[in-house]
Specification:
globular; 0% strand
Length: 213
């Protein structure tokens, strides 16, 4: 399963999309974390305002918003392919564990390990699995500020009659305010984990052993 042609193709997409948007993901997640720290501390310092501008438009105005939006679309692809790769490996580990009599749960725990098969790989896969869904929510909701067509689509899908406070829902999901301080702290942790993913992914590529002929 793991060595299938489709797995290699998905891995190829995940790798190269990651390389294209790695710097953006790092900046976006780190600035998002800084914005959350400002909200949690109740500070309106100029620094946090600068972080918000960097987060939204990279200080490049409408061009920056377009760059952020395009990179966010690619981030959605990156997250989906990442989960597929994890699922493929997890199924292999679960099948192998069951054959050895160790049980499916043992194989699942292996697939969720932050140290297996090595620390670099574990520190990429582990945070990616736990932070992926919240990051996907942030990406999907964040697109409404970058593309009008996406904003119109979301409103048409969830609020066709205009009776639901859709903007409040989208905003609360993006900034993590839906459960008050608790959800903001969770979103802060997720943002920091997200910022680590490009670094751990790059470490995996740099230290990947050469294939034997």
């Amino acid at each position: 399963m793991k060595n299938s042609e489709f797995h290699r193709q998905v891995h190829f997409v995940h790798k190269w999309v990651g390389l294209m948007i790695g710097l953006f993901v790092f900046i976006s997640c780190l600035t998002g974390a800084m914005i959350l720290i400002g909200k949690l501390s109740g500070s309106d310092a100029e620094f946090f305002g600068a972080m918000k501008t960097l987060h939204r438009s990279l200080f490049l105005g409408s061009t920056g918003r377009m760059i952020v939006g395009t990179a966010t679309l690619l981030l959605i692809i990156e997250i989906i392919t990442g989960y597929w790769l994890w699922y493929d490996v997890a199924m292999t580990l679960i099948y192998s564990a069951r054959r050895r009599g160790a049980g499916a749960l043992y194989g699942l725990r292996q697939s969720l390990s932050w140290t297996r098969p090595n620390l670099r790989y574990g520190l990429h896969v582990g945070p990616g699995i736990w932070a992926g869904i919240p990051l996907l929510l942030m990406a999907v909701t964040g697109l409404t500020w970058s593309f009008q067509w996406w904003n119109d689509f979301i409103y048409l899908l969830f609020d066709p009659t205009g009776e639901v406070n859709t903007f409040h829902t989208i905003h609360s999901l993006h900034v993590g305010s839906f459960l008050g301080k608790t959800s903001r702290i969770i979103w802060l942790i997720v943002a920091l984990l997200g910022a680590s993913l490009p670094l751990s992914g790059l470490a995996i590529l740099i230290h990947r052993p050469a294939k034997k002929k």
